[in-house]
Amino acid sequence: SETTRVTAELDLAFPRALACENVDLGLGIMICAAVKAFGADGGHIRIWDLDTSTLRLQAGVGSYYEAARRHRADIDTAGPSRTSETFLRETPAIVNLAQLDPCTVGMLGSPHMKDELRVELERIQSCANTVIYRSGRRAGTISLHSWGPWFFHTFRERALGTLAQRVGFLLEHLEMDQQSRASDKHLRFLKDI
Fold first, then answer.
1. pLDDT value at 192 more than 80
2. Parallel, antiparallel, or unpaired: how do β-strands 137-146 and 54-61 relate?
3. 67, HSE (Cβ side, Cα atoms, 13 Å)
């Protein structure tokens, strides 16, 4: 089945992502693998910054990601987007006719929207957002998008849950690994003194 195929492709990338020395590289490998496995046109991962209550763009691929990196790197968790809504409600959001979606229409109509970002957002016809959990708590979101309408069918919705599980585990593992390496480095420094 298509769900099995997507899951197998994600599982092929997972060991490479786990072997990374930092979170950004690992998440980058997974989002690139996800976009390819799903056959999407782009995607990105946002991580929740508790101090600022924003979702910070952490990794991604595609022209929308590049524009968002420049003009929408941090978004308010209470903001008017499907990503924010997904995070707050802790439920996936699937939009298959984005240009008719009230959130998308509202964002496109905003006088604060940069032209480069507006052009990219206008191209998106379908998008899917889901929540990433770390140790059972919300940690961020994953967004995938397509230039074509009606892209996210049932099998892709199921595979999106698998992707979120893999990325949540990866995030937890890489953060612990980074902390461990930082502690080891600090201990070596103290030992050398």
1. no
2. unpaired
3. 17
Q: CB count, 10 Å around CB of 133?
A: 18
- Mean pLDDT along residues 41-52: 95
Q: What is d(CA 190, CA 152) in angstroms, rounded to the nearest whole number?
A: 53
Indicate the angle between helix axes 115-123 and 63-71, nearest 10 degrees. Answer: 150
Q: pLDDT category, 154, cuts 50, 70, 90?
A: confident
CA distance 30 to 10: 7
Could you give the C-alpha distances from 122 to 30, 93, 97, 113, 118, in angstroms and in order? 26, 18, 11, 12, 6
This prediction's pTM: 0.89
